[in-house]
Design goal:
The protein is of the alpha+beta class. Helices cover 29% and strands 30% of the residues.
């Protein structure tokens, strides 16, 4: 807790928290981890996991601790990065609270286990939340939208999409990640060509899947690159998807 001077002799306390937007792809669908609040404010409403930063810990340490305490997930399995800071005066009815939001990405993660002040923790599809069919506590819908924008942009210019895939994976597995996060279908042949031509994006393992039906598929692991060269821009794919939708009307 720190002080915020509002006028002569008046100090308003300010709390610092961390919130986590944890995204994964389950059953080819982008999902986010939510907890059910067990106390005021907003008891019973779903929210992003998070909590107060302790005096003796860094922001990153607080994010990792809250992740384990509220969900039982191991942060070492996730790609974790700071998203941005949110500090509007009215964002928390208890008083002035500034939160540092984190974006965490991981492959098909296990069922979370609720703890701390959360009644339950579960994976929830992102789309109904974006359509506001499910109400979120605080300003967590705004934070979720910002996190999704960040994730979509990073898929164009970085190799972070591979963080959603358990190794080894197929090019089809990677394509499903792009489709789930971008929210549009991609041409398999065109996608394969872009991915395999990108410098050190993926590396072949030399092995192939042995499916019960269909053709075997080559298996890959994440390459050493962190930036995509050339980038996988979605503008053309969005236009093609819109044209396809228009032809069905």
């Amino acid at each position: 807790m720190i002080g915020n001077v509002e006028g002569p002799g008046r100090v308003r306390p300010v709390a610092v928290t961390v919130d986590l937007v944890i995204l994964t792809v389950r059953r080819d669908e982008l999902q986010v981890l939510l907890v059910e609040r067990g106390k005021e404010p907003y008891p019973g409403l779903p929210a992003l996991p998070g909590g107060h930063v302790r005096e003796d810990e860094t922001l990153d340490s607080a994010a990792g601790r809250e992740l384990e305490e509220e969900t039982g997930l191991d942060g070492r399995r996730l790609h974790l990065q700071q998203l941005r800071t949110y500090g509007d005066p009215g964002r928390d009815p208890r008083g002035r609270v500034i939160t540092v939001a984190y974006l965490a990405l991981g492959p098909d993660l296990p069922t979370p286990v609720a703890g701390s002040d959360a009644r339950a923790a579960r994976w929830v599809p992102v789309q109904p939340l974006l359509e506001e069919r499910i109400e979120l506590a605080f300003d967590h819908l705004t934070i979720l939208r910002d996190a999704l924008d960040r994730a979509r942009s990073q898929l164009e210019y970085t190799t972070v999409a591979a963080a959603f895939c358990a190794e080894p994976f197929t090019i089809g597995d990677l394509r499903h990640v792009y489709e789930a996060i971008w929210g549009l279908p991609l041409d398999p042949s065109n996608f394969r060509r872009k991915v395999t031509r990108a410098d050190r994006f993926v590396e072949p393992t030399g092995e192939r899947t042995i499916p019960e039906i269909g053709r075997p598929a080559a298996l890959y692991r994440r390459g050493s690159a962190r930036l995509l060269s050339p980038p996988l821009l979605r503008a053309g794919d969005v236009a093609r998807a819109q044209d396809a939708a228009a032809s069905l009307r």
